[in-house]
Design brief:
The chain has 165 residues and is α+β, with helices and mostly antiparallel strands. It is built from five helices and nine strands, in the order E-E-E-H-E-E-H-H-E-H-H-E-E-E. A hairpin with a 7-residue loop joins strand 7 and strand 8.
């Protein structure tokens, strides 16, 4: 794979974030209150082991509620039912992502941009975030570094102008 660098340097990235992902837990453990990062996470991913490799199937975000609240909403319950019906052989897990914005404060706008880039950059045929994949647009340069339990994710993703030497 060819190495690419930011055209104008990392100091000019509009939204530069590191997201620390928690160890995966089975989906049912979230509602039992057994996930410590539920109060600090702004992102979650529904993931599963497929042939020994972690795959992401859905990315979600929260800003004014915790992940366990969001996952108990009807639309999310229906989403999980569809995934279980389509892939009855998989065990569903969640990993929670706590972001840190480098050189700035976290806003709802940042959360939305970061979620969009996570979805767009990790797209595959089975991911169910179709609307965000089909409508991804960004006028700002964004970079995400995934840390912690990042097995289903690329270590670094970005949107902007890149160059190769």
């Amino acid at each position: 794979m060819r190495e690419f660098n930011w055209a104008h340097g990392e100091e000019d990235i509009c939204v530069n974030a590191a997201i620390s992902w928690s160890k995966p837990v089975t989906h049912d453990m979230l509602n039992d209150g057994l996930v410590e990062s539920d109060e600090t996470a702004y992102f979650y991913a529904i993931i599963a082991l497929v042939d020994g490799e972690w795959w992401s199937f859905y990315f979600g975000k929260v800003f004014k509620q915790c992940v366990s609240e969001r996952n108990s909403n009807l639309d999310h319950i229906e989403r999980m039912s569809r995934l279980k019906e389509k892939h009855p052989d998989l065990t569903w897990h969640l990993t929670l992502g706590t972001p840190e914005i480098k050189g700035g404060n976290l806003t709802a706008s940042h959360i939305d941009l970061l979620e969009s880039l996570l979805i767009y950059s990790h797209w595959h045929d089975e991911i169910i975030n179709i609307k965000k994949v089909e409508s991804f647009e960004c006028a700002k340069s964004i970079q995400i570094e995934n840390t912690g339990f990042a097995a289903p994710f690329y270590t670094k993703v970005g949107c902007g102008v890149f160059v190769s030497e």
